[in-house]
Amino acid sequence: MMLITHDRLRATAIRIFRAAGSKPEEAGIVAGHLVEANLRGHDSHGVGMIPTYMESLEAGTLKPNRAGRVAKSDGAFIVYDGERGYGQVVARAATQIGIERARKAGIAVIALRDTHHIGRVGSYGEQCAAAGLASIHFVNVIGNVPRVAPHRGTDARLSTNPICIALPAAEPGRPMILDLATSKVALGKVRVALNEGHSVAPGLIMDSQGNPTTDPKAMFDTPAGALLPLAEHKGYALSFACELLAGAIAGSGTLKKANRDKHTVTNGMLAFIFDPKRLTDQEWLTGEIEEITAYVTASPARDPGEPVLIPGDPERLMRKRRIAEGIPIDAVTFDQLADCAARLGLDRASFAG
Ligand SMILES: NC(=O)c1ccc[n+]([C@@H]2O[C@H](COP(=O)([O-])OP(=O)(O)OC[C@H]3O[C@@H](n4cnc5c(N)ncnc54)[C@H](O)[C@@H]3O)[C@@H](O)[C@H]2O)c1
User: Fold this and answer.
1) Which residue's CA is the nearest one to ligand 1's atom 7?
2) Whose CA is nearest to atom 25 of ligand 1?
3) CA-wise closest residue to 238 among 331, 139, 95, 346
4) Cα 180 to ligand 1 centroid, rounded to whole Å
5) Is 298 exposed, middle or buried (0-12, 13-18, 19+ CB in 10 A)?
6) Residue 291 Cα, ligand 1 centroid: separation in angstroms?
7) What's the pTM value of the predicted model, to 2 decimals?
8) I need a surface site. Which of 26, 70, 90, 259 has the fewest CB within 10 A?
9) For atom 2 of ligand 1, which residue has the closest CA?
10) Ligand 1, residues 118, 147, 179, 296: which to mutate, most atoms within 8 A of Cβ?
11) 152: Cα within 13 Å, side-chain hemisphere
12) How remote is the CA of residue 351 from the centroid of ligand 1, in Å?
């Protein structure tokens, strides 16, 4: 495990994306998004995704330098076609259009289709919150094999289908950002455990026979095992709702057979972005958020070292720490990045240095 400053990691990722054909702006956005995920403690969605992105580029299922386009615009409703671009660029552009529409119309409903992996969904919630808007995002994942078992099932039939709910900050810099996979654990976190040589906690995954296991390798065997849904039937129900909202209603497609074996990652997203001031007075709302936050977080902590937080706090705390101390990158991930760089004709030695 080594600690790398966020600046150096970003510069490294930018070099890789530039060598892989992205123009400077795109390389900066994608690298910035991935490093931000690392900074916020979500290494599963950080620079460790780069080898997967390179595979998609090679397979032609990810196209550089495409920001997508509005395919349909009807009042508050916008259909955004990602045109197989980098999700970080496409979803950001679609969210910006949604923000502008919600400022005018009070609400925007964005249906995002045919985009490569959009990364940490919370980043789009943060984008809305920073604009003073609230947002709800439902996401599904197609293009690859299912990863998550339905409640009562013994094999994977859905994916990690994340949900994000974001609210602008009452207190500067402290928006409420709920951003979670509907599986007990994100697949990328199992990959991180495998790379670091750890087992995963009991109760998170099952092997290909449907038996509980703590060996992360089970998720990457052929046939592969399955992640368990969050909170048994409740997470499964939320995941199924994501599949219908982000897959069917947003028009991106669900995990049916034709969408399972394309060796890529495609995210569908249905996002509702709205202006809370259309419903309540801003000052009153700020006061309510402040008071309920103070009340809830004042619950005496079971462990004094672990106070009660609100969603979004752990990521902000981790960000502060990692900006100061650096981002831990395990040797396997580092090697994979160096391999990517070497395959793109960059000098491996200068990259590692
Ligand atoms: N693009 C995709 O296809 C895809 C798929 C799955 C997950 N993801 C992303 O993976 C990331 C990780 O998801 P995850 O489910 O592993 O995250 P997680 O289990 O760490 O949960 C994160 C959420 O829980 C909140 N939280 C954590 N500890 C808390 C505490 N003590 N008190 C209050 N709130 C707390 C966080 O603020 C955050 O909102 C997310 O950013 C998600 O968007 C993306």
Assistant:
1) 181
2) 311
3) 139
4) 3
5) exposed
6) 25
7) 0.96
8) 70
9) 119
10) 179
11) 3
12) 31
- Residue 199: both structure tokens together: 């087992």
Ligand 1 mean position, distance from CA 143 (Å): 22
> Nearest residue CA, atom 16 of ligand 1?
186
CB of 122 shorter than 6 A to ligand 1? yes
Query: Cα–Cα distance between 57 and 46 in angstroms, integer?
Result: 18
What φ, ψ does residue 162 adopt, rounded to 5°?
A: -80, 160
Q: Closest Cα partner for 67 from 35, 92, 50?
A: 92
Q: Are 84 and 228 in contact (CB under 8 A)?
A: no
